[in-house]
Amino acid sequence: MTFRWLKRIIAWSLVGIIIQIPIYYVLDRQVQHVMNPSSLSPQAQAQTNQYTLDAPNIINPLVSFDDQFLAFRSGDQLSIYDFTKQSVIWKLDQTKTAIAYQWLPDRNALLIFESGIGVNPALPGRLGVGIHSLEVSGNQGEAIDRFASPLPLSFQKTQISNISLSPATNLLYFSVQGQNQSNLYEVDVMKNLRRLNRSGEHVEYLAVSPVKGTVYYNLKGNSNGQTLAENGPTRVQIASNPQDKVLGLWNKKLYLGTVDQGYLTKIWTLSDNQPSPKRPDFTLFWEGKVPWDQSSVVSNMAVYGLLVRTEKTVYQVSPQGSKVIGKGENSFFSPSGKYYYAFSTDSSGTSLKRVVL
């Protein structure tokens, strides 16, 4: 009798061990996945795609928001490259000059600030400056050019930057750097051009809310470094530290960076939940030390955190800290935050590498 019970105990013990082995194996895999996901998930590993562009010495490359198209300049000519077809699908007429350009956030359209003969259809055969919207279709391979708005002739000799459109209001914002002044302009759907900054104010960085339509911007120089929020007739100051810079607006949050003696030391966030916050409540997102120079660019990441590109290095920044992920020279990001691009270019062509973040 005792021997029979002993056999049963041994048998059930073996069954228990057999059942526990796969359970422990699964649990161990899950623990390893949490502690070290890159070692277990091939999908999480960085994926790289290589592209060759038959375009020498490209400058100012910009990726569309859906990551299908690349706009760039080669020499004086503006072109659009299709990553799916791996070819250039459009080039700007060489009789015209692209002063600046920017992809729209809500559709595959490139806004082009042009100068040249016939740019303004109301003035055929005459020199003009204006904004054109180029609608690009990847499936049909078409590019439809529409005239959006005329601009003053004086704009052809200026530097236009910070181009941003709010889909909520269809208002376009951009800054114009002249000889002694940096101004912020607004263009509405009726093609009316309006300057927002006041006399003596110099605009530096700006970001536009895609939902509320608020434009946030820095004033520098004699403006005592204010950061303003403007929506329609309402204009309020949200920060007064001259070291603060508007970095961008992502995921319904405004990101403001503190730059001290050539280093980005803090990043603050503010919820974009009202037209113009009169009593802003900033939250500290990150604190550390990352180099900052005149060429520095900040972008959102699709997963979590921000990318900060300086002249030499690209950093990933999050509340957990910062780390180097690539070289800053000849690199740029996609606005979706999904990809990091690095390229080498010379007189024979351009080699472009796209890395999944």
Automatic annotation (TrEMBL):
A single MF term (Gene Ontology): helicase activity
Membrane-crossing segments per the record: 9-27
Record's keyword terms, sorted: ATP-binding, Exonuclease, Helicase, Hydrolase, Membrane, Nuclease, Nucleotide-binding, Transmembrane, Transmembrane helix
Annotated protein name in UniProt: ATP-dependent exoDNAse (Exonuclease V) beta subunit (Contains helicase and exonuclease domains)
Organism in which the protein naturally occurs: Desulfosporosinus metallidurans
